[in-house]
Amino acid sequence: MTVRSPRPRTAAPWVRTRLRAAPGTALALALLVAVTAFLAAALPRAVDRYGDDGLRRAVTSAGAARTVLQFAAPPDPQASGQEAEASLRGAALEEYRARILDAADRTLPLDPGQSASGVRSTEPQEMREPWLPRPDGLPPRLDLIAQSGLAEHARLEAGRWPRAAGYVTARAPRVEAAVSAETARRLNIEVGSVLRFAGEQRAPLDVRVTGIVAPRDPRGAYWSVEPLARTPALTILNGDPDLREYWKAALLLPPDAAPALLGTATDPYRYWNLVPSVDALHAHDVPRLKAAVASTESGPVLQRVREKTSPVVSAGTDLDEVLLRHERLRAAIGPLVAVAAFGTGTVATVVLMMAGGLAADRRRAELALLRARGGSLTGLGGRLLAETAVVALPAAALGLAAACLAVPDARLPYAVAAAGAVALLGCLALPVRAVAAHRAVRVHTGREDLTSARPSRRRTVAELTLLVLAVGAVVALRTRGTTDGSGAAGDHLVSLAPVLVGVIAALLLVRLYPLPLRALARPARRLRGVVGPLSLARAGRGSGSAVLPLLALLTALTTAAFGGSVLSGVADARDRTALLTVGADARAESLHTLPADLADRVRRTEGVEDVTVAGVSHYARPQDGWDVVPVVAVDPGPYSAHTRRTDIGAFDARVLETRGGGPSGANTSPEAGTGSSGDPGDGDGGGDASGGGAGNANGGDSGGADGRAGAGSPPSADASAATAADPLPAVASPKVAKRFGTRPFPVRMEDRSIVTLRIVEVRERTPAVVGDQFLVVDRAGLSARAARPTTLLVTGDAFDPDALRRTVGDGTPVRVRAEERAGHVDSPLQSGAERVYTAAVTAGAGYAVLALLLTLVRAAPERAALLARLRTMGLTRAQGRRLLVLESLPQALLAAVGGTLTAWATVVLLSPGIDLSTMAVPDTVSSPGRAVLRTDPVSLLVPALVVVALTVGVAVAQAWWTGRRSSVRELRAGDAG
Asked: In angstroms, what CA-CA distances link 57 with 51, 52, 282, 294, 830?
């Protein structure tokens, strides 16, 4: 009989066995890695996304007139008449446009559909037709534009499309044109209207309107580069003291009719407008785009264009300025976002390491047994690495995919690198911690009490290194700021400054924490109760590896408080900027005189608390000069109260009280005539605008005298008489005060009356004027016209803006503070950075909570066993709850108090080097000054209180749950309740 030997049994694979043995632990690790990988991958994609949106918004808001690449060339002076005419026709221009596009499209993304070519007049011509509107008696001035693609970018509303009949030359007597519907409505132009342009060595050119068109895309680049082609504009006559206005508009010729402009006085030129493709612009390409624009304006691209077209072609654009402004704004915002990103990344890293450490501690006995039975470190680390890789790698890939779906249209490499770093950390946390703990083969380990642990020399060196880095980062941030003088972004060490401060504080607190415990241990033995001494002893016997939990909490608290202070500072800066821009809760302002009863009607509007009236003369000229300074005529009492209420240039009403004048204005004098020295043409500006010169050193009056003497004419008799009268006290801005000093000086008002002023107070701002140049005077000392009301400053928190506008009327614009404040966050670069910052701080707070829970979960089994044993010795439920709460309070209070102090110190240390203005308001808005970082009490105290409350809550919940377990009920030695 043959006996078969049993088949050898194959050992089950390590990874499958471990995953089946602890599926909950594997699922928790997968969830942690997936969420962390999602956040890590989404961050660079979100930064790319809001950077691209910000660049596109910057280019769009700058307007096509600034961002278009315009190539221009006059008719070739060497060409004959026929050659010059041929060069202006549509076919020649389109051929050149194709060549320019071919040369420039290699370096810049262009939009051929919005690009155009054409011919236009250099100077608009005065029209003498009597039926054209003349607002102030001045005839309108019209341009002639022959641009390609009119039929593709407009629709015909009346008449027909203009045509170039026959072969148009410079001697053509008439041509056809179209006008926009807005131009036709404002200038009373109809189909069939004829406008006559003066000829040059020929008869006038008749332009007959055959069609009225409406733009298909009024905001598109085709119409925005030449806005007069779409919308006429009322323009103030240059140098006119009465500010008379006239209409400016354009007539649209067919491209082949352009040669007719050669016979007029319009001085035509050719142009080719190349419009950037906004959707193809990316923020990370800004350096390359700047180089391409420079090459197009005066580099190899322009040289290739000239070779393919004409040697007289020139190129110009303001796109490089738009790109530079965007780059500076992004460079200023980037370090602030990096602060939150580094803080959240540090906390997430600590949490992943804590998760690996928790798993290693729970499996300490198992791993120690494997080492005692001959397991090698390499084999042990390899098996643990395979175990975690099977879970972490798919989870990280899932997080990366979710990030790509959540934040589309962004670069992938940085997201892949970030998710890969998370996956690597998730894979290595457990093996590295286990290998480090089991380098030596041992079964029993010594106690790791916090009070008895002694830091090693290597740890001391590492801590000193971090301390040096933190000090260097703080010094660099305080001296350099988040950007250097050229606008380049600060380095990563500067952005790491808050995190480094938090790390140093955590290491320092861990070293100092045993000292009070040792000091309290001896006196606590004399207490009569058992809970107090026992809880203190338990707190002192905590794990000596408490650096990671404390580091996570302090870094999270510091980042949260720093982020909250940043967001609070941004909100305050926006509120202040909106208030300074409007000057009140609402502002109604007109260049003309407001109705006398308007203030009372506005005051009766629901929700309006008060109305302050002011009269602003924007074109007052001190010392008969060309420079203008706004003069604000006010009632001192109400206006002074308004300045105190808004905290904008507050002053005492008594400083503006008129001395010796009276309502008639005894210190004013009418101008003698247009030939006097009060005429703008007779003076050169009355001194240096920067405040330099001898006039400033002598109080300001000699500077004005020098200015008038330089023009070759002495002051008029009226001005001298006005100067001799009692001067009217005025509140001035620093620039104006520096220029005129404290001596009396004459000011010619808009009604040509002259008033003598003397500066008695200096204030940085005033509510009635937006700017850094103004004079505020008592309206009682001015003439009736100079003191006319033009501005209403409305105070109230509950009024309806629409109702206020209906009360004021359509003719007077109304600006509302709340609307102005909302307009300061429309920049995608700033609002996107703010959202990323908020999300990073929130994620950091979530990781901090998770770190706290991991710390408590790590000690939960030991605490449950302790309560079970103590209940057998008669410990009540209430005493058990107090024991766990008192045991966990020292570390919670350490984290809360230490985190609050660290966050406060971080904000105080770093605030001098951080300017929030660029993040608070758009670059097109004048900031009230440097928006500094200030401590926010809510951001400091709320996270710390949450840490304490969560710690106490978890301790109470654990005591309650442990007290309800059946094993404890069986073991306890009697408990009445």
From this structure: 10, 8, 11, 21, 11
CA 610 vs CA 594, 651, 762, 767, 798: distances in Å = 17, 19, 26, 14, 12
Q: CA-to-CA distance for 638 and 613, rounded, in angstroms? A: 8
The DSSP call for residue 680 is G
Residue 786 backbone class (left: φ over 0; alpha: ψ -120 to 50; beta: rest)? alpha
Q: Comparing 398 with 968, which gets the higher pLDDT?
A: 398
Strands 245-253 and 116-120, bridge-based pairing? unpaired
Q: Are 208 and 193 in contact (CB under 8 A)?
A: yes
**CA geometry: angle 713, 719, 724, nearest 5 deg:** 130
Pairing of strands 610-617, 233-236: unpaired
**Which of these, 622, 620, 719, 603, lies nearest to 667 by C-alpha position?**
719
pLDDT at 658 over 70: no
Q: Tokens 């352009």 belong to which residue?
A: 258
Q: What does the DSSP assignment read for 732-770?
A: E-HHHHHHHTTS-EEEE-TTS-EEEEEEEEE-S-BTTB-
pLDDT in tens, 704-751: 333 333 333 333 334 333 444 578 999 999 999 998 888 999 998 888
As to burial, measured by CB atoms within 10 angstroms (0-12 exposed, 13-18 middle, 19+ buried), residue 953 is: exposed
* Dist CA 240 CA 292 (whole Å): 42
The full DSSP string for 415-437 is HHHHHHHHHHHHHHHHHHHHHHH
pLDDT band at 663 (very low <50, low <70, confident <90, very high): very low
Q: What is the 3-state secondary structure (H, E, C) of 625-648?
A: CCCCCCEEEECHHHHHHHHHHHCC
Higher pLDDT, 582 or 960: 582
Helix (H) or strand (E) holding 196: strand 194-197
DSSP string covering 952-973: HHHHHHHHHHHHT-HHHHHH--
| Residue whose token pair is 């008002």 | 749
* Bigger pLDDT: 269 vs 676: 269
Tens-place pLDDT, residues 766-775: 999 988 889 9
Q: For residue 929, what pLDDT is reported?
A: 56
Angle, CA of 857, 858 and 863, to the nearest 5°: 80
Write the CA distances from 971 to 435, 875, 876, 958, 966, integer angstroms.
39, 11, 13, 18, 9
Question: Of 756, 763, 689, nearest to 720 (Cα)?
Answer: 756
Span 587-604, average pLDDT = 88
What is the residue extent of each domain of the chain? Answer: 15-47+326-575+827-971, 69-316, 610-795
Q: Is the pLDDT score of 281 beyond 60?
A: yes
C-alpha span between 888 and 714 (Å, rounded)? 87
Longest dimension (CA), the chain: 145
Q: What is the arithmetic mean of pLDDT over 664-670? A: 47
**Structure-block tokens of residue 880:** 């058990």
Whether 138 contacts 170, CB under 8 Å? no
64 compared with 481, residue with greater pLDDT: 64
Average pLDDT (35-47) is 93
Nearest of 216, 317, 207 to residue 252 by alpha carbon: 207
264 forms bridges with which residues in the sheet?
199
Highest mean pLDDT among 146-155, 512-521, 946-955: 146-155
Q: Categorize the per-residue pLDDT at 784 as very low, low, confident or very high, splitting at 50, 70 and 90.
A: confident
Give Cβ neighbours of residue 934 (< 8 Å, ≥ 6 apart): 565, 568, 569, 572, 907, 911
CA separation for the pair 302, 416 (Å, rounded): 40
DSSP string, 570-622: HHHHHHHHHHHHHSSSEEEE-SSPPPTTHHHHHHTSTT--EEEEEEEETT-EE
CA distance 787 to 789: 6
Question: What pLDDT, on a 0 to 100 scale, did the predictor assign at position 425?
Answer: 93
Exposure b/e, 27-38, CB count within 10 A at least 16 = b: eebbebbbbbbb
Q: What is the pTM of this model?
A: 0.74
